Amino acid sequence: MKKFLLEIGVEELPPFLVKEGEKIIKESFLNFLEENLIEFYEIKTFSTPRRWAIRAKISEKQKIVEEIITGPSKKIGVDENGNFLIPAIKFAESKGFKKEDLFVLNTEKGEYVALKIKKGGKDVKKILILKLGEFIKSLKFPLMMNFGKSFLFPRRIRWVLCLFDGKVLNFEFDGIKSSNKTKGNRGLGDKWIKIKNEDDYEKILKENLVFPDFEERKKMIFEKAEKIAKEKGGFLVYDEELLDELTGLLEYPGVLIGKFPEKYLEMPEDFIITAMRVHQRYFAIKDKNGKIMPYFITCVNNSEDKLKNVIENFEKVLIARLEDAEFYMKEDLKIPLEKRFPILKEIYWDEKLGSVYDKVLRIKKFFESIEIPKDLDKEAISRAIILSRTDLTTEMIKDGKEFTILEGIVASEYARIQGENEKVVKILREFLRPKNPSDSLPELKESALLGMIDRWDTFIGYFLKGYRPTASRDPLGLKKILYGFFDLLINFKFKFSLNEWINKMVEIYNLKDNEEDIKKYLFERYENYLEEKKDIRYDIVDATISSSDSLYIIYLKAYFLNKYYKENKETFLSVVIGQKRVRNILEEENIPDFVDESIFEKEEEKNLYYKMKEIEKDYIKSIENEDFEKSIFYLFSLKPYIDKFFDNVFVMTENISLRKNRLALLKKLKELFDKYADLSKISVSAKELELNKK
Amino acid sequence: MYFQDVILKLINFWKKKGCLVFQPYNSEVGAGTFNPATFLRCLGPFPWRCVYVEPSKRPKDARYAQNPNRVCQYYQLQVILKPPPENIQEIYLDSLKTLGIKIDSHDIRFVEDNWESPTLGAWGVGWEVWLDGQEITQFTYFQQMGGFDLNPITCEITYGLERITMYLQKKDSIFEIEWVKGIKWGDIYKENEEEFSKFYYEIADINFYLDEFSKIQKETEILIEKKLLYPAYHNVIKLSHIFNILDARGAFSPKERNLRILKIREYAKKCAEIYLERIGVLKNEEISP
Predict the structure, then answer these.
(1) pLDDT tens, position by position, B247-259
(2) Which of A155, A249, A306 is nearest residue B104 as measured by Cβ atoms?
(3) SS3 string of chain B?
(4) What is the DSSP string of A141-192?
(5) Cβ-based contacts under 8 A for chains A and B
(6) Where are the domains of chain A?
(7) pLDDT in tens, A219-252
(8) Among B112, B167, B254, whose Cβ lies nearest the Cβ of A15?
(9) Which residues of A touch B106 (CB under 8 A)?
(10) Domains of chain B in sequence order
(11) In what helix (H) or strand (E) does residue A405 lie, and over which residues does it extend?
């Protein structure tokens, strides 16, 4: 094995691409090695904003593999005595072989003249020289730029360092030549640094203030920041996303602390943290009571000792941003939120669906028309609805810069200052959550309900204007909106009537549409959601979906059914198969509604019937009480009786009254099941069927 | 170092690097990119290097001279390099050294900031250059201008002259910058800021400017029709500034705002098209309608 080192030096990468690109390069390189029959062990990759690198131990020679290649067909290449003819010999010679090496191979397409050739065994060094340039050119990243070469790359390539077995591996592509030179931290000036040995790579870079290992750098930033916060008697406000971004922005993990005048602490905490975080990428510190302190932690790409005297520069920049926030706030508070409500007429929400003002009015109407759970504070929600989007008219949000992410929070903070009731303040603060899949949910049920209605309005509106996203194209982000809706619905156990919600909203929009289509579309999304987020089989949801008018109840039923399925696969599947049979048999017309006990002929008929009667009451009660685990217990207790029935009773007998009675029994059985779910909708794969037979 | 010396040093630096010393445009622009020396010259295959100061006028940044960092008129130093030299970042850092900034005792960072101008139909990739957390320069490799892919690409370096000078002179406010001994930036521009703030936010007559906008629009269409490139592009610049005034006055709903941007972009694209046609890159029939 020989040591190998490849470093691609680039102009500063976008922070998100540093680590992501490292992964892409690693995977691509592993493929490259495999394709070229190069064996390796010990592979390590590095990434900083200015470089990606791979260090590995790789084989000196290619692996040798045997391969059979075919030439002309037997008809052309071999005479009747089995002698190889000229076309066959030419084929052998063209591949560097002799007549003696040929043989006839039977393939799917017929018999052919063939050769067994050996691939590989070549000098790896030569292959690398030949192919590494193409390898680099062929790399694909999620973001690429044109920089005047024949290929695209995320940023301009400035150098390529490549060592093999302790020596430079010279190759050239598109005017870029490899060498054994790299560069250190920008702060040290623009000079070339020689790497003589693959093993020295990290050491020499660190001496030049470059820590090439992403995870190591990240850990160092975090530890230094935590320590420095503690020294001030506070705690670092941890922010993983920011930490990753900073690690992608720095080659050296420098950390400094600065302060800002306490007068800014009068502003809402979120304004301060946003001013620090979004543009400046500073961390905040809180004291042990969770109150923000007048300090910030900034990361720097140079050794801390050299920068101690310039911390005031960092302070000045932050103050300018805090000044901006203060200016906006002062301007904004001149107009109370309530008076901002009509201004929403000027802000359009959707070309076809009107202004934000229209949207809020619809939400208000809808809220007033539906049934609201009794434990909710209706008055607070009503008030919050009116104020809910007013912050779109504030300077803070309109600015379109760092504070825009505070939508909802700005309304909430201004509401607090203007003396709104605490609950209203809190609803405004949280009703837009979850803003993204990793965001937390609101705490108040009131906020959740407003959030749901808001999303419901969006969903119905988009649907009515004919918007139908696909899995790969959803420019309006409807999937995210519906997933947020489902998250809220399930976590807060909202049991509203789906039909009511659809009808009322469609009525308010006053646009015609087939309400069944809306339902169908929504169910499809719900099935996707439950499969993706709750790991519930798609068809199990499908089976329960028409048994209730409440999405929450459907979820509960599907959840417990799925749980039972996971724990008792065999029983479950056999009952499903039974239900499929029942469904097929029941296609006959004129099945009576009542079972006549007096004409039972077989024990198994009677037993099934009596068992059904025995559980019926408790089973129905358990469904009414939403005690679905119990319902499942009752239903599946029928299994041995159903099995025995089918094993011993012939339903489709010639005797009409017997047959009708047996069908009536099965119809009743199906009705019982259907109260929970239509199990016949669940698909059973051939493999599962096989499993079931055993 | 005085403000005027910062300007002179940088111009001299880039002059030595082979840049033609150009001058600002004579109508209001939001950024030096609007100057034909950038917008038109980065189109097509011919090499081009220039440096110029451009007053940047941004009505929405008006703060009644109350914010130490934000004003509605400041100066940019624009450097255009087509094609960009291999070590352009290092050359740029050298330019900071001529201003006495010691790179090794500061935090210098190139922070991703991909630039886009919806009005010019242009975008590029690049960075904000940070000096101790302060953005002092915008550094962009244009990829597209007027809707056309660029080949070769052009590098645009835009220095915020006041920001750098505040930093060099250790001033907390733009108004405190010493232009030259005894004369501050604020002595020259404070009243200007106050009055223009009042004008942009309170006085500017929305109806007058809306009317102006549509009149210039009509004229621009005629100029484009007649392929009078420079007057047509001059109108693009004027429309853009009127748009900015109306925007500061809060005259547009977001929808209308978008429509106006699209309109200006359409004209900018047409100008780029006429230019490319004129220098022989595009043939008339190649242009899709």
Answers:
(1) 888 787 666 788 8
(2) A306
(3) CCHHHHHHHHHHHHHHCCCEECCCCCCCECCHHHCHHHHCCCCCCCCEEEEEEEEEECHHHCCCCCCCCCCCEEEEEEEEEECCCCCHHHHHHHHHHHCCCCHHHCCEEEEECCEEECCCCEEEEEEEEEECCEEEEEEEEEEEECCEEEEEEEEEEEEEHHHHHHHHHCCCCHHHCEEECCEEHHHHHHHHHHHHHHHHHHHCCHHHHHHHHHHHHHHHHHHHHCCCHHHHHHHHHHHHHHHHHHHHCCCCCHHHHHHHHHHHHHHHHHHHHHHHHHCCCCCHHHCCC
(4) -SS-B--SSSS-BSS-EEEEEEEETTEE---EETTEEEESEEE--GGG-S-E
(5) 106
(6) 2-61+123-207, 64-120, 214-332, 337-554, 568-693
(7) 999 999 999 999 999 999 999 999 999 999 999 9
(8) B112
(9) 187, 302, 307, 310, 313
(10) 3-201 (3.30.930.10), 205-286 (1.20.58.180)
(11) none
Nearest alpha-carbon partner for A646 in A692, A608, A680: A608
Listed range (A380-389, A469-478, B103-112) with the worst mean pLDDT: A469-478
Nearest to A249 among B67, B105, B111 (CB): B111
B83: preceding bond cis by omega (within 30 degrees): yes
* Complex-level ipTM: 0.91
Show the tokens assigned to A93. 């010679």
Confidence at residue A110, expressed as pLDDT on a 0 to 100 scale: 86
Tell me the pLDDT tens digit for each residue of A489-510.
999 999 999 999 999 999 999 8
Average pLDDT score over residue span A539-557: 94
B202 close to A (CB below 8 A): no
Q: Is B93 on the interface with A (CB under 8 A)?
A: yes
The 8 Å CB, 24+ separation contacts for A540-545 are A540/A565, A540/A677, A540/A682, A542/A681, A542/A682, A543/A677, A543/A678, A543/A679, A543/A680, A543/A681, A543/A682, A544/A676, A544/A677
CA distance to partner chain A, nearest, from residue B228 (Å) = 32
Residue A691's pLDDT is 65
Chain A contact for B258 (CB, 8 A cutoff): no
- Sequence-distant (6+) residues with CB within 8 A of B280 are none
The pair of structure tokens assigned to A282 is: 């500073």
Residue B286 has pLDDT above 60, yes or no: no
What architecture is domain A568-693?
Orthogonal Bundle (1.10)
Range from A289-293, A589-593, B160-164, B214-218 carrying the lowest mean pLDDT: A589-593
HEC letters along B23-57: CCCCCCECCHHHCHHHHCCCCCCCCEEEEEEEEEE
**Chain A interface disruption, residue of B67, B90, B132, B201, most A CBs within 10 A:** B132
DSSP string covering A429-469, please? HHTT--SSTTSPPPSSHHHHHHHHHHHHHHHHHHHHTT---
Residue of A156, A324, A348 lying closest to B254 (CB–CB): A348
Q: Which of B107, B110, B134 sits opposite A307 (nearest CB)?
A: B107
CB atoms A310 and B86 under 8 Å: no
In this complex, do A186 and B253 lie within 8 Å of one another by their Cβ atoms? no
> Helix or strand or coil: residue A300?
strand
Whether chain A has a CB inside 8 Å of the CB on B90: the answer is: yes
Q: Distance between CA A667 and CA A427 in Å, rounded?
A: 50
- Give the range among A669-673, B217-221, B271-275 with minimum mean pLDDT: A669-673
Q: Which chain B residue has the Cα nearest residue A315?
A: B133
- Tell whether B83 is within 8 A of chain A (Cβ): yes
* Cα distances (Å, whole numbers) of residue B214 to A102, B209, B217, B233: 83, 9, 5, 16
- Interface probe for A, chosen from B114, B125, B259 (most Cβ of A below 10 Å), is B125
- Is the pTM above the cut of 0.90? no
